[in-house]
């Protein structure tokens, strides 16, 4: 799990002023915290964090003399230049289940001979912080046309420590024939 060093937010500067100085305003809330905490981090650190981690990823924040285990709850970017404007972190209580997302990563997708339909690439679930899943990897090498992979086909989601918030028969990916895909696309275009 990543550990990111953050500082308490400089309340004398507005968010726009912080961003101009290359600082991203952030917030930690929830868990066992009595109140939310306004924090800030360097823009480079925030970009690196969001490049490597996703929404729902567990992150340790080092704030002064304490370390707070959190998950990335959401982030916002500027519409015009795509710079990070804000990140929200949810503090995690080790004894309380938390809602999160597991991201599905596809390996060897270039070897698929048919059309790859990505149906559910983020699987919502609830678990204790120690049982959280950041990503699951599905290897597609050698998968024939007609292959359907559901949530139940991924071992990480069958753990009794995970409460799925989708049906186990929900389709994650489907590999279909190119002729079928062309006919389906033509049908959708006609509608």
What does this structure look like?
The relative contact order is 0.14. The longest helix has 13 residues, at about 180-190. The termini are far apart. This protein has helices at about 15-20, 45-50, 180-190, and strands spanning about 1-10, 25-30, 35-40, 60-65, 65-75, 85-90, 100-105, 115-120, 120-125, 135-140, 150, 165, 170-175. The strands form 3 sheets. It has a 6-stranded mixed beta barrel with strand order 1-3-2-6-5-4. Strands 10-7-9-12 form a 4-stranded mixed sheet, with no helix packed on it. It has a 3-stranded antiparallel sheet with strand order 8-13-11. By secondary structure, it is of the alpha+beta class. Strand 4 (about 60-65) and strand 5 form a beta hairpin. It folds into 2 domains: about 1-90, Ribosomal Protein L25, Chain P, CATH 2.40.240; about 100-180, Beta Complex (RNA Polymerase Alpha Subunit, Chain A, domain 2), CATH 2.170.120. The mean pLDDT is about 90.
Keywords for this structure?
Ribosomal Protein L25, Chain P, alpha+beta, 2 domains, Ribosomal_bL25_b-dom, Ribosomal_bL25/Gln-tRNA_synth, globular, rRNA-binding, 43% strand, RNA Polymerase Alpha Subunit, Chain A, domain 2, 3 helices, structural constituent of ribosome, ribonucleoprotein, 4-stranded mixed beta sheet, 6-stranded mixed beta barrel, 191 residues
């Amino acid at each position: 799990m990543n550990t990111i060093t953050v500082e308490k937010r400089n309340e004398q500067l507005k968010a726009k002023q912080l961003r101009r100085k290359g600082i991203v305003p952030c917030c930690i809330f929830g868990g066992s915290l009595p109140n939310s905490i306004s924090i800030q981090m360097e823009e480079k650190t925030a970009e690196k964090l969001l490049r490597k981690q996703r929404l729902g990823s567990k992150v340790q924040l080092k704030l002064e003399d304490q370390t707070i285990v959190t998950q990335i709850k959401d982030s916002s970017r500027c519409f015009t230049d795509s710079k990070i404007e804000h990140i929200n972190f949810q503090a995690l209580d080790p004894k309380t289940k938390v809602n999160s997302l597991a991201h599905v990563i596809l390996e060897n997708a270039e070897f698929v001979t048919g059309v790859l339909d990505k149906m559910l690439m983020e699987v919502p679930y609830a678990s204790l912080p120690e049982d959280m899943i950041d990503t699951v990897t599905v290897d597609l090498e050698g998968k024939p046309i007609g292959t359907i992979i559901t949530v139940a086909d991924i071992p990480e989601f069958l753990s009794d420590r995970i409460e799925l918030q989708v049906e186990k028969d929900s389709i994650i990916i489907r590999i279909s024939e190119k002729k079928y895909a062309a006919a389906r696309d033509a049908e959708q275009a006609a509608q």
